[in-house]
């Protein structure tokens, strides 16, 4: 059997295979500053059957279309060696319109979309209640084999150049 055919068969097997890990979020911190932009922002997280579910809602005082997102994702392996998986500054409106083009970010966006049903596009509407219900990281959206370790994302959301929201997520892969 050719090596290529063999690899193809393995990769098909990998696609449908059960994942042997779960994502656990240990810490979620959300802070916000601009009361003339944010009407209401609430969030909560529950742990159930080795899965972390996040819910929240965001209501803005008025329409906004100038949003810059600064985000980093770092990973620490079992030897505590840190790898920066990404660091990017992005225009959120362009990002939301092109989200499907980046594979890594698409993994997050896809899970988000299941619950927010395509509401996330610019301009973000004032007086609209953006809600997230029991969002979680679905292992099936990730490769079958991931290394053990912990991860952390730090995200700063700047609205009209003002630092408005900060989100920190720290979690780990549970095998
Ligand atoms: C939601 O957040 C607002 C402030 O942004 C606060 O006044 C309100 O009590 C919160 N509601 C809940 C259910 O936590
Ligand atoms: C959670 O994960 C631990 C460790 O992998 C396992 O022993 C336990 O049975 C799991 N609990 C549930 C409810 O899946
Ligand atoms: C956002 O990221 C850019 C590029 O890394 C950086 O120059 C800028 O200072 C960051 N903005 C804030 C408010 O941290
Ligand atoms: C927005 O929706 C959430 C979740 O359903 C709810 O708890 C919250 O009170 C709503 N906020 C407003 C301002 O209607």
Shape-level CATH architecture: Distorted Sandwich
What is the SS-derived class?
A: alpha+beta
Question: Mean pLDDT score, rounded?
Answer: 85
- The CATH topology is what? Ganglioside M2 Activator Protein, Chain: A
Bound molecules: 2-acetamido-2-deoxy-beta-D-glucopyranose
Report low-confidence residues grouped into runs of 5 or more: none
Q: In total, how many domains does the architecture comprise?
A: 1
How many runs of DSSP E, i.e. beta strands? 8
Q: Could you give the distance between the termini?
A: 33 Å
Write the H/E string, N to C. Answer: HEEEEEHHEEE
* Backbone CA Rg: 18 Å
Beta content: over 45%
Count of DSSP-assigned helices: 3
Protein name: GH25132
Organism: Drosophila grimshawi
Signal peptide: 1-16
Keywords: Signal
Q: Would you write up a description of this structure?
A:
The chain has 175 residues and is α+β, with helices and mostly antiparallel strands. The chain has one domain: Ganglioside M2 Activator Protein, Chain: A (Distorted Sandwich), CATH 2.70.220. Helices cover 20% and strands 48% of the residues. The site of one 2-acetamido-2-deoxy-beta-D-glucopyranose has 5 residues, from strand 7. It comes from Drosophila grimshawi.
Observed structural traits:
20% helix, globular, Ganglioside M2 Activator Protein, Chain: A, 175 residues, DUF1091, alpha+beta, 48% strand, 8 strands, signal
